[in-house]
Amino acid sequence: MITSFNLHPTKKILLLGVFLSGLLLLYIFQINTLTASVYSIGDQEKRLNQLKEQGSYRKTQDLPSFTRVHMEKLAQEMQLERVQNISYLNVLSPSVATTTNQE
User: What are the phi and psi torsion angles at 67 (to 5°)?
Assistant: First the structure.
């Protein structure tokens, strides 16, 4: 059986006011959180664009380092030698490794 609360009309208005003010505070909190998120996303997009610009700038800086002259100079500094003669191993069986039954 459902019972109704018999409250004085001023108490009902006060209770309604508390409830509505609670909803208003919750709404303000959610709007504040949403606004902070939007600003954060905007900052992240700016940072992403800065990183993209830095990446494209660095790509243009690195292009000269991959030239043939630079690579030959680097090979000389590392004391690498040019390959003159290549010989291959002839493998007679189709597999390199075989298993044997050991008992």
Answer: -75, 160
